[in-house]
Amino acid sequence: MAEITLEGLRFRYPDNPMDTLEALDLRIASGEAHALLGGSGAGKTTLLNLLSGLQTPTSGCIRFDGRDVTALAPRQRKVAQVFQFPVLYESLSVAAMLAVPLRNHGWSRRDAARRAAEIAARLDLAPLLNARSGDLSLYQKQLVAIGRALVRPDISLVLLDEPLTAVAPAIKWQLRRVLKTAQAELGATMIYVTHDQTEALTFAERISVLHAGRVLQTADPETLYEAPSHEQVAHFIGSPGMNLVPGEITAGRLWLAGHPLGGAPGLTDGACTIGFRPEWARVSAAPAVSPAAAGTSIGGVPVTVDAVRVLGTRLQQPEGLVGIRVGTTHVYTRQPIDVAPGCPGMLHVRPERLLVFRDGARVA
Amino acid sequence: MSGRRYDNRAWLGVLPVLLIVAFSAVIPLMTVVNYSVQDIFDMSTRVFVGFDWYRDTLRDPRFIDALLRQIGFSLLVLSVELPLGILVARSLPRASPRTGLLLVLIAIPLLVPWNVVGTIWQLFARPDIGALGAAVNALGIPFNYTAEPLHAWIVLLMMDVWHWTSLVALLAYSGLASIQNLYYQAAELDGAGRWQTFRLVELPRLKAVLMIAVLLRLMDSFMIYTEPFVLTGGGPGDSTTFLSQHLTTMAVGQFDLGPAAAFSVLYFLVILLLCWLFYTAVMRDRDGADVDAN
Lengths: 364, 294
Fold this sequence. Notes:
The complex is a heterodimer of chains A (364) and B (294).
Chain A: E1 4-11, E2 21-28, E3 33-37, H1 44-52, E4 59-64, E5 67-68, E6 79-82, H2 94-103, H3 109-122, H4 138-150, E7 157-161, H5 169-186, E8 190-194, H6 197-203, E9 206-211, E10 214-219, H7 221-226, H8 231-236, E11 243-250, E12 253-256, E13 259-263, E14 270-276, E15 281-285, H9 291-294, E16 301-314, E17 317-326, E18 329-336, E19 344-349, E20 355-358, E21 361-362
Parallel strand pairs in A: 3-8, 3-9, 6-7, 7-8
Antiparallel strand pairs in A: 1-2, 1-4, 4-5, 9-10, 11-12, 11-14, 12-13, 14-20, 15-19, 16-17, 16-19, 17-18, 20-21
Helix pairs in contact in A: 2-3, 2-4, 4-5
Chain B: H1 10-36, E1 38-40, E2 46-48, H2 52-59, H3 61-91, H4 97-111, H5 114-124, H6 131-138, H7 149-177, H8 181-189, H9 194-222, H10 226-231, H11 243-253, H12 257-293
Antiparallel strand pairs in B: 1-2
Helix pairs in contact in B: 1-12, 2-12, 3-7, 3-9, 4-7, 7-9, 8-9, 9-12, 11-12
C-alpha cells in the first residue's frame, strides 16, 4: 500500500473553456480509507480516472509513495478498481476470477489459488469459490469484484466508484461492513467515491468534499460536520443540511433579522451568512423561556413556525424537526415538538456553535 | 365436467394455416418421399421399390464424394470466416461518426445477388483477362482455376469469404457493441493483455451471436449452389461438385426422379439434423443465460 500525493492536479477537456478539475492538492496516508464526496458534475469520476490512469492530467502530478506515476499506464500503476455494478468475467469460476490479476502478474497457479482462497475467506466467499457468476446474487457478485481488487498484495491503491449503487438497500450496510473490515485488516489505501454522505461518513477516516472541480475541504467526519470550512460543505453534509441565513455584523455583534444572536469578535462590520445545525437551535413558543434555562443566546429571534415533523419520541415527548421562517429564509431545528405550525415562536441558538461565512468561506 | 364446454370448432380457425402449410411444405415434401420409393419409367409406368434408392444413394461413390467435399467446404468456410469476421468487427471504431458508413460499406457484398457474385469472381479470377488470375500469372505463378482443382477451391473459398464474412462481422460487431467500456477498463487494471481481454471479456459476450453466425454460415454453405455453378460449374472434373449441384444433375439433367428424390430426403435429413444440433446447443446456452439473470 502506498501514500498517495496529488500536486496541483488539473484536468481540462480539450474543447472545454473550464477546468473539470482545478489545481488539486491532496495527501492520502498509506492504509487510509478516504472518501471523495460530491454531487454529479463535481469531478469525482474524472479524479478517479486520473488516479487509475485512464485519463491523463492536463498538468500537475500524482505520486505513489513519492514516485511520480503520472505518465504510467493503468496496468503499470498497481491500482485496482471496483465499479458501480459488479464487473466480472462471466465465463470463469469465482476462484479463477480472483486469480486473474495475480496470474497476469506472474504468480504461479498454486500461489494464485492459495491467495485467492485467502481473500475469499476474508470476504465470506469461501463456500462460493467454485460458483460461476450466474449462480451469485448481486451482493455476492460485488463482493467478488471487491475481492478481485484486493487480491494483489502489492497493490498501491484501491478505487471504489459508488460500489453500493447496485446492491439492495437492505444489505448495503452489510457490504459496507465487510468492505470496512477488509480494508482495516489488509491496511489497504482506499479511495471511495460517492454522492451519499452517509456512506462517506461511515466508511472513511477522512473525507474530501468535491464541488465544481475543487476540493472544498478535507477532514475527518466530525470536523466536516461541526466545522465545515465552506457553505457548500455545510449545506451538503447533514440531513437536513446546516441552516444558512443572511446575517449582519455590527460593532462586534452578530445580528439575525435585526436581533442580536451573539458576539463576533475580530470580524469587520458588514453582511455575512450565519450557519447553525438544526440540533444547535431551539424554538420555543412565545413568550420566550428564560435564556438561562435554555442555555442559549440572550433574547432570541421572533419567528413563525411553518411545519413540524415528528421523527420519534424521547421520555414520551415527541421529538423531530421544526421548520420555521426567519424573515424570508426557512430553517430547521431539531428539538422536542412543543410548538404548533402557525404559531409565533422565539429562536435561540447556542452562541458557541454559531458559524459565520463570508463569500462562501467560514470566517468564524 | 366443470361446466366448461369442449367442442372442435377451434379446428376451423386453424384450418387456413394448416392448408397453407400443407401446400407449401407437407405436400411437396411428401411428393418427394413418394418418388423416392418408386422407380418411375414414364408418367403411367411406375414400380414400388422400397428403400432401394436410399441404399443405392448411400453406396454411390459420387454421393459420398460430394458429401465429403461439402463437409470440407463448409468447415473451411467457417474456419476462415469466423475469425476473420471477429477481426473485422474488432477493428471497427465504436460509436464514431464513421461507424455507420463503414457498416454499410462492409455489408455491400451481402446485397449482391448470388449469381452476380459468381459472375464477378468468374471474371475476376480468369487466368487470361481476370484482374486476379492475370496478375497471379504475371507474377510467374501458374494459375488456372478452370483446370486445377486446388486453384478452383481457392477461388471458391475466396469468393465465399468475400461474400459472407461481412455477415459474421456485422453479427460480431453487434455483440461487441453491447459490451460496456467498464469491462475493458477492469481488464486493463487487472493487467490483462489483448488476448486475455478477448478471451475473458469479449468472447463470452460474443458466444450467442457467434452461435447464430455458425448456424447461418453452416446451413448456407451446406446448401450452396448458385455461386459454384456460375464460377466452376462443378469442375474441373467433379472437384467442386457439392451436394446440391450433384442433386440437380441427377434430377434435372438425367431425370432420375427416384434416386434424386431419395437423395433429396437424405440431404434434407442431414440439414435437419444440423439445425437440431445447433438449436439444442443454443437453447441450452439460453437456459444458462436465464440462470445468470436470476
